[in-house]
Design goal:
8-stranded mixed beta sheet; 13 strands; 19% strand; binds adenosine-5'-diphosphate; binds ligand VHF; RNA binding; amino-acid biosynthesis; Glutamate 5-kinase; transferase; ATP-binding
Length: 376
Amino acid sequence: MSGLLVGAKRIVVKVGSSLVTDEGRGVDARAIGDWCRQLAELRRAGVESVVVSSGAIAEGMKRLGWSARPRELHALQAAAAVGQMGLAQMYETHLRAQGLASAQVLLTHADLSHRERYLNARSTLTTLLAHGVLPVINENDTVVNDEIKFGDNDTLGALVTNLLDADALVILTDQQGLYSANPRTDPGATLVRQAAADDPSLPNMAGGAGSSIGRGGMLTKVLAAQRAARSGAHTVIAYGREPDVLLRLHRGEAIGSALRATSAKWAARKQWMADHLQLAGRVTVDDGARRALCEQGKSLLPVGVREVQGDFHRGDVIAVVDASGHEWARGLSNYASAEARLMAGRTSVDIEGLLGYVAEAELIHRDNMVLSGVSP
Ligand SMILES: Nc1ncnc2c1ncn2[C@@H]1O[C@H](COP(=O)(O)OP(=O)(O)O)[C@@H](O)[C@H]1O
Ligand SMILES: N[C@@H](CCC(=O)OP(=O)(O)O)C(=O)O
């Protein structure tokens, strides 16, 4: 079961606070430089990466001269705002030295549960990747409050993995991986080398954070692996200071804990569309569009749409039907129903003239669509 990263084309790498800040001593230039070198090498090998990096609060506390983590939420938020400057600067410097452009992206939970913002985040991140830019993501600590807080970046890493349909989530931490019990308190604990991500015994092994620096501990990592598996992505939890950890994982070496997703990517996505989203409308397409979707694996363009029914917003799930009302596919609409009606039957070049802007050339992008009864 090792080798979960072999052949991966897109990965999300999450690095924890204690690693990034050398246990609170300050942003660790060497560690970040080392990951950036590996990420650049992976990029040259055709692997797109996104980094989810913690460490803003720990770095901010250091810069503000605070020795104890404050309990007050606004003080934590202030520390994050201060520390994020150093964090972003460090990634930018090292990625640039490797010839890679980087981008800072700060997200909240609400950004990813709101359909329209979900699509916006997805489009922006995929555009960055398409331009060869490496996004460095953190929670937007300044604007979150108790209800909408991720609470930990492991969850954020999993949500980003789902958002981008990544092949794998790599969680780099200060332990070799998931142990049968917290190794800080149980000297007999053994490393779990491989397991199914949805194995129900895993959460019982995992405890909270072992240091005052980290937040979520191992439980949030195991839950993140479960969540990543919902979009068919594998998770590896490994020690972030292991030499060449990312490159060796990509070569197939067994390092840390390999937590395998048990359902294939397309099946997971289909399940998600089928289970979690209600249909807000439908579009009737012509035969050319049906063939493009079903036989050529293409996106749905407005030119193939004959009729638009229902009242839907950008990001809602709509059905794609033929003239007899038979559903061929369903997916997330890039446009609201009023815009879709204007665009129906028109070529992509007309869209800007009609709407005054172009969000996307497709009404439903291939990546956000599942075909009824067909695996890709
Ligand atoms: N079963 C377990 N296996 C490994 N580590 C565990 C386990 N249970 C709890 N932990 C604790 O989780 C810590 C890692 O989580 P955390 O401190 O939040 O790290 P990070 O900053 O990388 O997210 C470990 O240092 C360890 O003390
Ligand atoms: N946004 C926070 C993330 C805190 C967090 O989740 O920490 P960790 O458990 O070390 O991944 C920060 O940058 O400090």
